[in-house]
Prior knowledge:
The complex is a heterodimer of chains A (about 200) and B (about 90). Chain A is mainly alpha-helical and about 200 residues long. Helices cover about 70% and strands about 0% of the residues of chain A. In chain A, strands 1-2 form a two-stranded antiparallel sheet. In chain A, α4 packs antiparallel against α7. With about 90 residues, chain B is an alpha+beta fold. Chain B has a two-stranded antiparallel sheet with strand order 1-2. The longest helix of chain B is centred in the last third of the chain and has 22 residues, at about 70-90. The interface between A and B is medium-sized, with 13 and 12 residues.
Amino acid sequence: MKTLLFNPFSKYPEKTLLSFGILATIIGSYLAFIFSGRFDGIIDLHFVPEVTLWQPFIDNGINICCLTILLLIAAKYINKRSRGIDILTTATIARIPYYILPLFNSNGYILESTEKIISMATPENLPDLSFFQLGGLLVFALFTILFLVWYMILLFNGFKVASNAKGPMPVVLFVMGVLIAEVISKFLIFKIGVL
Amino acid sequence: MKKLPVACPSCTAALVVSQLSCSNCDTQISGSYSLPVLLQLPDEDQDFIFQFILTSGSLKQMASKMGKSYPTVRNKLDDIIELIEKIKEDSI
């Protein structure tokens, strides 16, 4: 069970994983459309008032491409035999925990609660949130952190298997790859959004 | 089956073969013969190499047989190659 949840890349064939990852990406993108979520960066999820059908698909496409390219460059630097398909599989599978998060915005719950907090964030106004709204936000925040950690564990384990990484240097390259991919993905998603 | 020791239990240096005997005519041969590189590898690595040969060098088949992914098997092969190169280097 531990292998399945945190390092499926060491056991399962890449074609099986890639097929599963692509299917999860399609379902995750559709869920984001239903629950008004935007994956506007490789480690970002924001809820907005309106989302068109194609936007989450484009978001995830850009995120996966950015992750794959940057992590492949890092993997090739470590081990020239690293394969693109293994990194692509890693990028699609690792994002699965994030695809669950839009479900929390059922009926616009999270969006409404966060907008309320933002509108009341002045010294004169006291927060007027109900216990359930505040509790719900805290639960969402906790799950977001947990799923982000799970996402990064999957991503790093996949990267390690794909590149046969050993020692501290791959960790540095991995972090740099993720940070650069985040910047590039946010830029591209923003640019496409204003077109 | 007895396990062939390859490293000295006292100082961990590589062991060499100093005596061979014939079980048919009791002839004994003394000398100093280095162990072949293959025998200096851990048992697990030797098994891996045999599997590699038995699957005609197909890592894909090996992965399927071992219940591991292709990159995992590929990484294992790379590690063994690195170890063999290290053993050869140490023996010069």
